[in-house]
Amino acid sequence: MELLDNPVRPYAWGSRTVIAELLGQHVPSPHPQAELWLGAHPADPSRLVHADGQRTSLLEAVQSDPEGQLGADRALRWHKTLPFLLKVLAANEPLSLQAHPSIAQARTGFAQEEAAGIPLDAPDRNYRDDNHKPELICALTEFDALVGFRDPAASIALLRALDVPELAGHVELLAAQPDASGLRALFTTWITLPQSMLDKLVPALQAGCVRLAGGDDGAFRTDARTMLELSELYPGDAGVLAALLLNRVTLQPGEALFLPAGNLHAYLSGAGIELMANSDNVLRGGLTPKHVDVPELMRVLDFAAAPPPVITGSPDGDWIRYDTPVEEFLLRRHESPRPNAAGVAVPDGGARILLCTAGAACVRSDGRDLELARGASVWLAAGDTGVTVHVREPGTQLFLAGDGLA
How far is CA 120 from CA 40, 52, 84, 279, in A? Predict the structure, then answer.
């Protein structure tokens, strides 16, 4: 049981307040802070803070003693690596429109790029590793996102309400085939349009959004305002058109989204706890100056329209757990309205990371105590069993990340 020192990723879309406040740093921060990484990802691993103040890489600790850190069964199952990556995500601006591959797609794509000799850090590299990247985002604040293809009938209704003559033929393309194949056809048409056409269509769409956002039809007002925001940030970007086809979701704190392979999505704004398989494979579809590989994106996208996969969690003793279909990760959340001297039991099972996002607590194991302030986190190795958390302040909130094995 040891405290963690975690890296902050300073992407341009990040917040200057959320992560800085969480860590007790100066606000506003000098640069946007987008993600706090907690884990053993090779690109930016956490560091273990030992009792003497020395720090060592969590990645190196897992590599040098996988059975001790993960447990013998987990070390075998996860090929001597930590299977999950925990993040605090703080979006002040929209992220790129993106999807993640299945494990079979990732292995194929990674092998092909390795054989082609594309450096891992090349800007046009799609696959940084051979793993899939399903992910869960649990809202800390009100959290807005575009996620998954919406029912074609709803998209047709939105497009007709926008009443953009330049898009009329495109609307009828979907109306003639209002299913997954029609979505694929329309998305493919939009994502492959020449820039000269995008430079005409996106401003025309903006005009339609202005009319709809200020009109009497409240059904699509939020969608219209979202498209206006995206078009102002990314003028002439095909992703603005593609975003018209996605579900617009607002999560309240404690609600979560599970994003399986192939789910096209873009986080718009808000702060959340993100837990994913330990991968950095992202295939982008727009709303970004970064590399967009349309053929590869089309290979992984799932065009099946379904309601947004919102998860509210289920009771698990003193915790709320967010179950997903994957084994690499499982997120639990605990909130205490008042101090708890008796202690809350931390579930055993493999390696875990415990993060405090509000209040303060004391983590106790084998007679040893670690004080956990807001923003602090603890690494629990497989051998750290019988751990309890004793809440110090009202309103304390804790998140526990582990794998999803029974």
Answer: 18, 36, 20, 13
Reduced DSSP (H G I as helix, E B as strand, rest coil) percent helix, strand, coil of the chain, to 5: 30, 30, 40
Question: 371: how many CB neighbours lie within 10 A of its CB?
Answer: 12
Q: Average per-residue pLDDT in the chain?
A: 95
What is the number of H-type helices and E-type strands within the chain?
12, 24
pLDDT in tens, 355-380: 999 999 999 998 899 999 999 999 99
Claim to verify: residue 141 and residue 272 sit in the same structural domain? yes
**Residue 397 phi, psi dihedral angles, 5° rounding:** -125, 130
90 and 167 both lie in a single domain: no
Residue 337 has pLDDT above 80, yes or no: yes
Q: Report the side by side order of strands in the sheet with 330-336.
A: 55-57, 47-49, 2-5, 377-380, 352-358, 396-402, 330-336, 319-322, 314-316
Angle 157-305-323 (CA atoms, 0-180°, nearest 5)? Answer: 130
State the burial class of residue 50 (Cβ atoms within 10 Å of its Cβ: 0-12, 13-18, 19+). Answer: exposed
Q: Which of 74, 284, 333, 392 is catalytic?
A: 284
If asked whether residues 105 and 208 sit together in one domain, one would say no
Residue with the two structure tokens 């009100």: 142
CA–CA gap between residue 266 and residue 248 (Å, rounded): 10
Task: Give domain status of residue 274, yes or no.
Answer: yes
How far apart, in whole angstroms, are the C-alpha atoms of residue 111 and residue 107? 6
Euclidean distance between CA atoms 126 and 210, whole angstroms: 36
CATH of the domain at 38: 2.60.120.10
C-alpha–C-alpha distance, residues 47 and 53, integer Å: 11
| Diameter of the chain measured on Cα atoms | 71
pLDDT of residue 309: 81
Predicted TM-score of the model (pTM)? 0.94
284 is catalytic: yes
